[in-house]
Amino acid sequence: MFREVGCPHAVPTCLPARYTFEDIIGTSAAIVKLKAWAEAAEAAAAAASTVLVEGESGTGKELFAQAIHAASARRNFPFVAVNCAALPETLIERELFGYEDGAFTGARKGGNPGKFEIANGGTLFLDEVADMPPAVQMKVLRAIQERTVSRIGSNKERQVDIHIIAATSKSLRKEIEEGRSRQDLYYTLHVLDVHTPPLREHIEDIPALARHFVNKIAERLGFGPCYIESKAIEALQAYSWPGNVRELENALERAMIRSGADGVLSVDAIEVDAPPSWASRTLNVEAGRLKSLRDSQREMIVNTLSFYKGNV
Question: pTM for this structure?
């Protein structure tokens, strides 16, 4: 969906900020509104004002965060991403704040910096921030407000100059009401907020997105130029895409592997992993034609092995 750019001064754990606002694909009202955030986001990064990105899974929240970073004066400094939902409670604090030598059994000799320190000068992206344990939320709040961090096992405060971008696929307000998130976390993060729209709200962008993904996937798989039939485009627009843009890309890759490198992607090659109750909303086909993900994966593996003559 985006053009790639570099991150020349990033430390090894830094993700390159590969995406920019200028290359967001789509002309729908929802995407135009998203692009309109570019100027405000640049100002937020310069002022180190926090940005909260809310949206369903697969709508490109991290891509938007990287675009903010790439558009800002911090672009030549680290962009560091932390998935708060993927780390167990026992590890997330040391990942974020680091630790000193001997802070706990198994601690690395000489200690280890946390992501706040690694992102110094750049951007720290806290993905799925609503899944952060409340005790860690309190420490994060203080770090954001004071711009200082203290490693586990140390009383020394370290100054950090970072821009915080947080993202969540959950409703922070609901998480607060149900006691799983702190109210002050929401108000600290909620300086600028943006909503990444689900694909079903801008289906008019599917033709451009599909052609972009087909070209990208063909290049990665070593296929020649690939053409996607108009009926296939219509079929893609008839589906609700609960997995959003991520699901669209995966469905197209599955279809291309099934079709092989013949250069034409037809509607018959496209399948989605949906329960029978969704049949009326999935590609205008009967429930009997929908395959399970297991069967689709098996077929993909067999076809890929055949295409590459058994070379695993």
Answer: 0.77
